Amino acid sequence: MTNPVTKSAPAEPILLRHDEKGIVTLTLNRPKQYNALSEALLAALQESLDEIAQDDSARVIILAGAGKAFCAGHDFADMVERDLDGMRRLLETCRDLIRTMQGVPQPVVARVHALATAAGCQLVATADLAVASEEAAFAAPDERRRPTGFFKG
User: Fold this and answer.
1) What CATH number has the domain bearing residue 62?
2) Which among 25, 53, 71, 79 could bridge 18 via Cys, Cβ 3.0 to 4.6 Å?
3) Which helix (H) or strand (E) holds 63?
């Protein structure tokens, strides 16, 4: 007996880019994972920022998130199987991205429409400007306190 071949839909890109009149919008596009920062998403952001930094027509970069969260921080599913060297590489990738955000010639604006936690807050704090909707909220986990620190914007 043979199993029927099923075609799966092509995967959505994890980072969307939209250019319009010098405004480049980068949208984290992992809504089912609350835009958690996987190594692949960090790499896609790095590559895009490197390209935009060289683009003289780009005047501003907007960083946004798709779905119910702006960014939930690092993707624990991407971290769980890593050894110490793998974790160091992941965190170095994140550090390099943050340095790139700080060094691009264009201003970076974080457009926060919903929850930003942990490393998601770091993205917001690294941006040159943050614009938060009334629905935006920010949380920075703290092991010394329960529940975690949480405040609405």
Assistant:
1) 3.90.226.10
2) 25
3) strand 60-65
